[in-house]
Amino acid sequence: MTLSEMAALKEHIDSELAAGDICPSTPPARAPVMFIKGADERLCLVVDCYHLNAITIQDCYALPRQDELIDKLHHAKIFTKQDLCNGYHKICIKEGNKWKTAFKTKYGHFELTVK
């Protein structure tokens, strides 16, 4: 990471800790972090969960067909939009699986505190 990215990471961690969105942890596995630039050139923190897939038990079921999903929305009046940079951290996580949100940085190991 560049010096500016390290400063942005420290600022991000401090603000997430202050907001109570993350907490220090010592999980059995943790993922590295990196930054990507958004469409507006803003830095977005990304947690690379690629290796978590190797130890995750997969759900085995057929995905719904897209045309069937669209048909179900035919008469819908209200839709929602999710903020993937910040809103992602507000999604509920099954108890016992929070360790899977753990990430490692130069400043320590952290995990999400979403209830």
Low-confidence stretches: none
Order of helices and strands: HEEEHEE
Tally of DSSP helical segments? 2
Q: Choose one word for the global shape.
A: globular
Largest sheet: 5 strands, mixed
Helix content: 10-25%
- Average per-residue pLDDT, rounded, comes to 84
Beta fraction: 15-25%
Rg (C-alpha, Å): 17 Å
Total separate domains: 1
State the distance separating the first and last CA atoms: 31 Å
**What is the H level of CATH, i.e. the homologous superfamily?**
HIV Type 1 Reverse Transcriptase, subunit A, domain 1
The CATH topology comes to: HIV Type 1 Reverse Transcriptase, Chain A, domain 1
Summarize the topology.
Layout: H1 3-19, E1 22-24, E2 31-37, E3 43-47, H2 66-72, E4 103-105, E5 108-112
Parallel strand pairs: 2-4
Antiparallel strand pairs: 1-5, 2-3, 4-5
Would you kindly provide a written description of the structure presented here, covering whatever features stand out?
The chain has helices at 3-19, 66-72, and strands at residues 22-24, 31-37, 43-47, 103-105, 108-112. Strands 1-5-4-2-3 form a 5-stranded mixed sheet, covered by helices on one side. Helices cover 21% and strands 20% of the residues. 7% of the residues are buried. It has 115 residues and is of the alpha+beta class. It has one domain (3-53, 63-112): HIV Type 1 Reverse Transcriptase, Chain A, domain 1 (Roll), CATH 3.10.10.10. The model has no long low-confidence stretch (mean pLDDT 84).
